[in-house]
Amino acid sequence: MRGKIILDIDEVMEKKRAQSLDFKSVVQKHPMGCAIACVAARCGLSYQKAISFFENKNHAWTRGYYCPEVVMALANAGYKYKYQLFDFERHFVELETPGTIAFTKPDQQYPAGHFFLKSRRWWMNPWSNYPLITPAKASFQSELQGKVSYIIYEHY
After folding, report:
1. What is the DSSP code (8-state) at residue 24?
2. Could you state, in chain order, the average pLDDT of each consecutive group of 10 residues for the chain (156 residues)?
3. Residue 18, in any domain of the structure
4. How far apart (Å, rounded) are the C-alpha atoms in residues 90 and 76?
5. pTM score, whole prediction
6. In terms of residue numbers, what domain contains 61?
7. Number of folded domains in the chain?
C-alpha cells in the first residue's frame, strides 16, 4: 500500500491564491522583516510560515535580508527566482511583472532600504506607515516608492 498524502487545505488554497498573482498584503512583523512579508505574500503564506524559509531568523530584528537570502527563501518555498542589480533598460519588463520583488535604495523614507512586491496593478508595501511599528500596516500603492537598486524576479 502506498503512503497516504495528507494535504492542509489552507496551504493548498493559499498557494492557489498566490498563483493568481492577485496577492494579499502581508504586514512585516519585525523592524527588518520586509523581505519576509514579500516572500509570504508572493507564496500565499502567512508571515510566520514564510520566516521558516529563511536560514537566520534573527536577521529580521537586526540587519534584514540580502537578495541571495530572499532568493533562497523563495527556492525553499518552491519558487525559482534570481536577482540582479537593477538596470531600467534591461529590467523594465521584469519590474512590471507580477511576482517581482524590488529592493529600493536607502533613503529618508526607508533608511535601510525596503522590499516591495509587484501585483497585477499595484506594489505591495509591507510597512506603508513607517516608522510606526505598533501597529505596522501594509498596503497596495500605485507607485513604487524610492529608487530600485536590486530586482528579484521569477526565473524559468
Report:
1. P
2. 52 52 91 98 97 97 98 98 97 96 95 96 94 88 94 94
3. no
4. 27
5. 0.85
6. 27-154
7. 1
Q: 32 and 63 in contact (C-beta within 8 Å)?
A: yes
State the CATH number of the domain containing residue 69.
3.90.70.10
Closest CA to 32 of 70, 82, 83: 70
- CA separation for the pair 100, 94 (Å, rounded): 7
Q: What is the pLDDT of residue 17?
A: 47
Q: How far is CA 62 from the centre of its chain?
A: 18
pLDDT at 156: 79
Count of Cβ atoms closer than 10 Å to residue 72 Cβ = 16
**pLDDT value for 80:** 98
126 inside domain:
yes
> Do residues 109 and 130 make contact, with C-beta atoms less than 8 angstroms apart?
yes
Could you tell me if residue 19 is inside a domain?
no
**CA-angle at 97, arms to 49 and 126, nearest 5°:** 40
Query: What is the signed CA dihedral for 78, 62, 131, 113, rounded to 10 degrees?
Result: -60
Instruction: Determine, yes or no, domain membership for 15.
Output: no
Chain centroid to Cα 60, Å, comes to: 13
